[in-house]
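Give me structure tokens for this 314-residue protein.
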Amino acid sequence: MLNSEHSELHGGNLGHKEVPVTHLRQLTLDEIARRNYSEGTTRAYLRTIEDLARYFHRPPDQLGPDQIREYTAHLFRDRKLSDNTVNQMVGALRFFFIKTLKRPWHGDEMPYPKKKIHLPVIWSPEEVSQLIESALTPFHHTILMTLYATGVRRAELTALKIADVDSARMVLHIQQGKGGKDRDIVLSPHLLEEFKQHYRRLRRKPAMWLFPGGQHHTADDPISDKVVWHACREAAKRTHVGKPIHPHTLRHCFATHLLESGADLRTIQLLLGHADLRETMIYIHLSRRHVGATASPLDSLPIYAGNPNTTDAK
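Here you go.
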């Protein structure tokens, strides 16, 4: 879809007149390029538009708000997608119809579904230590250390270059992170030493990428996101902790543990690369230091006044 003919998305004949699609695809790509969106966003937008056209067996520019509302209901009801996923897909459709097709629609004609607030699972420092030490390979060990020590997103990790490691200033440069923004992150001395050992272990010394791809990590391209996922998944199996894990979990742990150790929200916002402080404030709900700062009103009831530490079951 969006790359051949039919329904402005896909080749083939589904019982109606075929239409050229390359022009519509190019219009969409041009609008995305003007905003400098990432490759991941581009793929997600095109994939969503293709899916919409497949669902109705019609070109997407022949559809309207009624079909989009029906499609959104289908995503929830039949495909059981999460609210976050559906919100991203609605965002892609709003972009396509309002920005690409210049439809004079109001946002409420394609409303975003109500989002639920899900607190991420946090591994304790002891559990993170187990995870890192349970890495399947030394290469995975370095990946896990980097995720936790810096809080980078998995795509940012795969894009790290050797030149991004600034040992003179003890910072790690993140080039073109989410939203195309650069930022610097503090470089732990332990992580710097790990990078040195990692570099010495590589069979072929890379000229550019900190984490080169290929079966033996000798390729001229960096590793893919899947390698980062695999490192987390395999290490988690060996820890037997039993908590969900993915690369972003270690980003959440990085922020939560920083907050628990006394770092302020503004600093954490800058380290994470959040555009809005409200994104960072979720970690207040996860920090033991903040959650435990106030006693439960149960403890102040007269029945416990004489024995505040009662824990015995009755």
